[in-house]
Amino acid sequence: MYEFMLALSVVVLLGVCVWYARHPAASIFHPLTFYLMFHALVFVVRPIFAWVYDFHALYDAIQFQPTMAQKITVLICTNLGLVVFSAVTLAVANEPIRFKQSLAQNQERDILLKPFLIAAIPIAALGMWALSSALQFKVNGNMDDIRVIDQRTGAGHLVGVSGYFISLPLMLGPLVAIIAFLGRFRLPAMLPFLAFALLKLGTGGRGPVVAAAVMIMLFYLYDRRRNWPGLPILATALFSWSIFSAIGADRGAGIREAIGMQEESTVRLRTQAEGKPLENMDLANMEFFEFLVWAIPQRTGTYDYFIHQLQIFTEPIPRALWPGKPVGPPIPMFNLYRYGVPLGATTSVPGAGWHGLGYVGVVIWSAFFAMLYAVPYRMFARSNAGTLATAAYMILVATSIVAYRDGGPMTILKALQFYFIPVIALWLTQKYLDYYRGGASVAPGGGARFAGESGLTAKQRRQAAMRNSDGMVGAVDAAPSAPSPLSGTPRDRRLARIKASF
Predict the structure, then answer these.
(1) Per-residue burial over 395-407, b = 16 or more CB atoms within 10 Å of its CB, e = otherwise
(2) Which residues lie closer than 8 Å to 200 by C-beta, 6 or more apart?
(3) Res 243 pLDDT > 90
(4) What whole-number percentage of the chain has pLDDT above 90?
(5) DSSP-assigned beta bridge partners for residue 149
């Protein structure tokens, strides 16, 4: 029976993929694309490997053994979650990406690059400070010194250091991706990403580097007006993944040794259990889900009813300001550590749904997560796709796989509060150029003339700049006559004014 369910999972995945491929909204930019990649690897390919190679390392580590019925329940739930997520996203995010960027919007990127680099300096300084501290800690520190695990609940919290400081390097990923986008992916614009990747991989962390690489890929494809990556991009991605895997085997020790931060004798390689492919905690959502089905509600006696999601309101408060802050959810319905040791477990979207309300919870939570990403997609598809909107959406969707794996909105909120700091900096840069440079008048011959150099009002100077940018001839130092019809959208005219001011 289990073999039949594994085969059925393959059939369901292929059916959804065919349905999706025939939909006009199908593209690399759609949130369903990333969910399909996550589901295919974690809940279709890996269970087949687990059956063939008889995975048991995670069962031993968590200290439980699921029955065949419970394993089948997990496959039913994952397929149910896939169908619900796909149906909701395609119903809400049903418009194709039309690549609406205009010539003025493309010119805006050239104008924004230098001011954004200035705005990026404090962000980069904070991120590099935290990243260098992480490198030093990796060599000389011990996680047991700063992280305390509650033996009753398994929840952990930090002591002697702020989680906000540790998370500051997350800002660097979207920062270098935006620089690459504004710099049109030329080599100088790609150097910040290469430096970030080297240092971050040296700490043993791969997730932020992969996220930044995906952001740059999405920016590049959108800039080139392509719905899907070609073979060269896919080949580059496979080659990069092999490098990441090799680096991850020693948790960055090789890089730290190469840059002189660590002695060669301290390098330690990690190997997979008994050489079995894909048997590692990074992809172990299947075993974690099986543990949830094994424990809930048979052993816990109840579901959680999504009450543990209230942690999104308590988690942002620093423990220094709230010494008595609860460790983990503020209102725990049950303690899974009474039944096993699911240390480091990630529930996934359908797993979090089962945790909340069984089969009904899988439907509710899958639909909820689909809306979290389908609504921003629809907003972006219907927008004029300016630089800011493009940056915000590409960063959001590039980090979606982590949210699908963890299964909770807290993961999204904790990460995006750092990922979107460079987006806020980009928005402030646009506002600066719009309001402080957009009022410049343009003197005959192309020179910029600012507020104190003529007797014109701000409105008259803006009108003069727009007439000049539209190719109209005439002196601009005199009071303007009746305005002429202007072509283009208000945003295009505003960008023309900004460009004329430089």
Answers:
(1) bbbbbbbbbbbbb
(2) 131, 169, 172, 206, 208, 209
(3) no
(4) 46
(5) 156
